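Lab notebook, bench 4. Still working through the backlog of constructs that have no structural model yet. Next entry is a single chain of 234 residues. Request: give me the structure tokens for it.
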Amino acid sequence: MATSVFRSTVGGALRAGAVAARSNTAAMFGAAGARPISTKVTLPDLKYDYGALEPSISGKIMELHHKKHHQTYVNSYNDAVEKLATAQGKADIQTQVQLQALTNFHGGGHVNHSLFWENLAPKSAGGGEPPSGALGKAIEDSFGSYDGFKSTFNAALAGIQGSGWAWLVKDTQTGKIAIKTYANQDPVVGQFKPLLGVDAWEHAYYLQYENRKAEYFTAVWDVVNWKAAEQRFA
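Model written out:
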């Protein structure tokens, strides 16, 4: 599971998620990418209606997930950054350290969800179509087939204890792809670039699938937007 401190976690995640959440992540950090600034992040608009992903993901879940859960991460991150700026102005090191967990968690939640919304698309917009191009070939080379990849990815999702995410990532040093799981709202950081993620928190599926989360893990592939992942892989 990924662990990190404030600068590496949130700063790295913002850089990794720049393609999907450019306008929001640019507001979270200054040009140096090191110190938080007072500009607030905002909830990104979706490119589709809440009900557009049915029956894979219900409109009610999408509305709650986006308008309530993601908005809470945005609000809480903004609040934590404001308090952090005040503590920095006072050279209050103890408070700055105490706020690291909040900025990590809520900043990661904002970045992860901003990427997640772009990972999804209704079938009318290409959702569910298999990966193609260089990423499609990389998946076949690494997992034998697209079905083999989905089976491995779903096994990783099922293995998450508690809340977290599974991600298809690209190793920026080797160019290879891999599946990694991250606890809670820890974002993809360091040498890895997030390509496609699935939210395994209960709020992402429970209202519709209850305790049958394996059904959600299967159904979500019918609305996965591989075009976004292919752009990140390039």
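Notes after review: The CA atoms of residues 11 and 32 lie 10 Å apart. DSSP finds nine helices and three strands in the chain. Flag for follow-up if needed.
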